[in-house]
Design brief:
The chain is of the alpha+beta class. The protein folds into 4 domains: 48 residues; 179 residues, Penicillin binding protein transpeptidase fold, CATH 1.10.3810; 287 residues, Beta-lactamase (3-Layer(aba) Sandwich), CATH 3.40.710; 76 residues, Immunoglobulin-like (Sandwich). The protein is 36% helix and 17% strand. Strands 2-1-5-11-12 form a 5-stranded mixed sheet. A 5-stranded antiparallel sheet has the order 7-6-16-15-14, with helices on both faces. Strands 20-19-22-23 form a 4-stranded antiparallel sheet, with no helix packed on it. It comes from Sutcliffiella cohnii. This is Penicillin-binding protein. Keywords: Carboxypeptidase, Cell membrane, Cell shape, Cell wall biogenesis/degradation, Glycosyltransferase, Hydrolase, Membrane, Multifunctional enzyme, Peptidoglycan synthesis, Protease, Transferase, Transmembrane, Transmembrane helix. GO terms for molecular function: penicillin binding; peptidoglycan glycosyltransferase activity; serine-type D-Ala-D-Ala carboxypeptidase activity. Pfam families: Transgly, Transpeptidase.
């Protein structure tokens, strides 16, 4: 042992040498293996934790009119997705400068930032700085809850690393800018730009971009609407960071910081006027295009609708006015619908005076149609079947059909009346008589063509007495057939749907079918114009031509009370209907006014909306309907007897004729009790009879004759000519 004395701890040296040769490499290799296993575990864990379906963000569906003008949004989160190419570089830089200036250097987590944050937290003995990267914030906002724990931070880091592995930096930044919350219910950079500055993100200035970048840390606290001073200070902090990180020079930063804080907040659309229409969009999207309401408020679609915003707002305003709605209480309800006649697009809809979202849409509620049914089930079919013409005479008498005895509303009857006048004045007795002559089944067959199938089989359908009734939308579509050569057209509220990629996935199709001939439709239009100008629909004022029909039904629980009242009408461009009544009519709750109220309201809405007040154009190949000939009574006939060399004795008759030059005048003689027609003139007021026997002169009288109806009027007084 002594021979090793003086040599420094050789045993220890040998031991250290063996450690460095054997152990250290083992430790390094083991660490690498553990690190590799850990990294693989992170990747595996990321694959397990990341559900890519969650990266599909909710985005608002936008409704626009046919001119592309914004109407409103449907959303669960007010967000509009935008591509990175549309986000200006200076806007991107603002967010990177304030949230994660080493964004393009790290791989999901920033160890330098974390170390710096821990150091500053220790110095300050409290949490003063966060170390989360933009990728970590995206991971937290989409995949994690707001719990504060080491486990959540670990998950956040794992997800962030895996996001960086799967996506490029540009894709991550794009997702982040589309995802973050900016306050006031606004999500994503595009919706925020639109809300705060009424601009698309592509048009944002540097200071506007800095203002938006200031918001995510405290959207309410830094809101330029609620706290403009704090918002400006925070914006200037972001501008300063842009300078610190080399995006702006000093002069640019100072100039921008001096600028006032200017916002142009886009006021939210008042939705109440549009609620019925929006609900009908939801329904049609599901029925025709298979898009659920849930998909619609999350899927970021653009839906073009035929809605006329001004018309919708005017209709809504008038529906709030009690003066239009007569009733024993203020709870009178109503429905309104107006359709573009040429293609079936709905221009405006009101489902109730106080309609609420997903409420009772009275546009689709069946009610008793009253006399609005006469043109559809009686007069239109009667002309089409060539049973009657507009100037055919119908019986206007109080008749009984089994146990059914229809009465005119004024309880007056004239015996015979033309279809023209029966429709114009909304007489009940002639309508029922005509349907009885034509046959109920024939009338119903035309209803089926108009998608108005009914269960009822009695003559009362002539007056709209139905078991279930029909809806305002159904009546509107049916009357459209009179406006367009007898063609029924399917209505729609969605003209076109585009998905979030701008691809058209649905479009309205013109679906038409022939119900009446063009000739029948034109005859009906001319008669329905008369109903508005001279008959039951003359209440209110409208400068152009309007065809239409009123309808009123009586209360079944109170004598003399009104249950439903209607006006259905059309101009050359639009067709629509208004219904008024209570959802439930009782002895205490009923209408106190009739069809003049919806008629006046319909005209007031059209007039205020300044819809074109043009004239109807007669279709090619049809005959026009002349104005009705109105016979006048001949008060006095003058006569004289005179001598003419060539005619011997001549009788000259004169009378006061009517203004209508189309009236025929039949001249009769009476001799020995025998009445003989001796002549006829058209539009004249004089007639001569030659070669009269002066020893036995007859007496004469004049009878006006209507060639349209082939009916004679009242005869004049009899006169016996004498020499004068």
């Amino acid at each position: 042992m002594t021979k090793y004395k003086g040599i420094p701890n050789l045993k220890k040296l040998l031991s250290d040498h063996l450690f460095s040769v054997l152990v250290v490499p083992f430790v390094i290799i083991s660490s690498l293996i553990i690190g590799l296993i850990g990294y693989m575990l992170i990747i595996y864990a990321g694959n397990y934790v990341i559900d890519e379906k969650k990266l599909v963000m909710n985005s608002a569906t936008t409704l626009v009119d046919e001119n592309g003008e914004f109407i409103t949004k449907l959303f669960v989160e007010n967000r509009e997705l935008v591509k990175m190419d549309d986000i200006p570089e200076h806007v991107q830089q603002a967010f990177i400068a304030v949230e994660d200036h080493r964004f393009y250097e790290h791989r999901g987590i920033d160890l330098k930032a974390i170390t710096r944050a821990i150091y500053r937290d220790i110095i300050a003995r409290s949490k003063v700085e966060g170390g989360s990267t933009i990728t970590q914030q995206l991971a937290k906002n989409i995949f994690l809850t707001n719990e504060k724990s080491w486990l959540r931070k670990t998950k956040e880091a794992v997800i962030a690393i895996n996001l960086e592995k799967r996506y490029t930096k540009e894709e991550i930044l794009e997702m982040y800018l589309n995802q973050i919350y900016f306050g006031h219910g606004v999500y994503g950079i595009e919706a925020a730009s639109n809300f705060y500055f009424n601009e698309t993100v592509s048009n944002l200035s540097v200071e506007q971009g800095a203002m938006l970048a200031a918001l995510p840390k405290a959207p309410n606290g830094y809101s330029p609407i609620n706290n403009p001073t704090e918002a400006k200070n925070r914006r200037n902090v972001v501008i300063n960071l842009l300078h610190e990180h080399g995006y702006l020079n000093a002069d640019e930063a100072v100039t921008l910081q001096r600028k006032p804080l200017v916002v142009d907040v886009k006021e939210p659309v008042e939705l109440e006027p549009y609620l019925t229409y929006i609900d009908m969009v939801y329904e049609e999207a599901e029925e025709k295009y298979g898009l659920s309401s849930e998909e619609l408020i999350r899927g970021g679609y653009e839906i073009t609708v035929p809605l006329n915003k001004q018309l919708q707002q005017i209709a809504y305003k008038h529906f709030q006015n009690n003066d239009y709605f007569p009733g024993t209480t203020d709870d009178v309800e109503g429905a309104f619908i107006l359709m573009d006649s040429k293609d079936g697009g709905l221009l405006a809809t009101i489902g109730g005076r106080n309609y609420v979202s997903r409420g009772l849409n009275r546009v689709n509620v069946k009610r008793q149609p009253g006399s609005t049914f006469k043109p559809l089930v009686v007069y239109g079919p009667a002309i089409e079947e060539e049973k009657f013409l507009p100037y055919s005479t119908l019986k206007d008498e109080l008749l009984t059909y089994g146990s059914y005895e229809p009465r005119n509303h004024h309880n007056q009857y004239v015996g015979n009346v033309t279809m023209y006048d029966a429709l114009k004045d909304s007489l009940n007795a002639p309508a029922v008589w005509t349907l009885n002559e034509m046959g109920v089944e024939t009338g119903k067959s035309y209803l089926e063509k108009m998608d108005l199938s009914i269960k009822d089989d009695g003559l009362s359908i002539a007056l709209g007495g139905l078991e279930e009734g029909v809806t305002p939308l159904q009546l509107t579509k049916a009357y459209r057939s009179f406006n367009h050569s007898g063609m029924l057209m399917e209505s729609y509220v969605i003209k076109q749907i585009k998905n979030k990629n701008g691809e058209t996935i649905g479009e309205a199709k013109k679906v038409q079918k022939q119900v009446f001939s063009a000739q029948t439709a034109w005859y009906m239009t001319r008669m329905l114009i008369a109903a508005v100008e001279e008959g039951s629909g003359r209440a209110g004022s409208w400068n152009g031509e309007l065809a239409g029909k009123t309808g009123t039904t009586n209360s079944p629980v109170k004598e003399g009370a009104i249950r439903d009242t209607w006006f259905v009408g059309y101009t050359p461009e639009v067709v629509g209907s208004i219904w008024m009544g209570y959802d439930r009519t009782t002895e205490e709750q009923y209408l106190t006014g009739g069809s003049s109220y919806p008629t006046r309201l319909f005209k007031d809405i059209l007039r205020e909306a300044k819809l074109d007040n043009t004239q109807f154009k007669m279709p090619q190949g049809v005959k026009d309907l002349e104005e009705p000939i109105r016979l006048v009574s001949i008060e006095e006939v003058d006569s004289k007897l005179s001598f003419h060399p060539f005619h011997f004795f001549t009788v000259t008759l004169n009378w006061e004729k009517g203004q209508d030059e189309r009236i025929h005048y039949h001249i009769y003689s009476v001799l020995d009790g025998e009445h003989t027609k001796v002549g006829e003139v058209i539009g004249e007021n004089t007639f001569e009879i030659h070669h009269v026997n002066v020893f036995n002169v007859p007496s004469y009288y004049i009878v006006p004759f209507n060639p349209q109806t082939e009916e004679q009027g009242e005869p004049s007084n009899e006169v016996t000519p004498t020499f004068r």
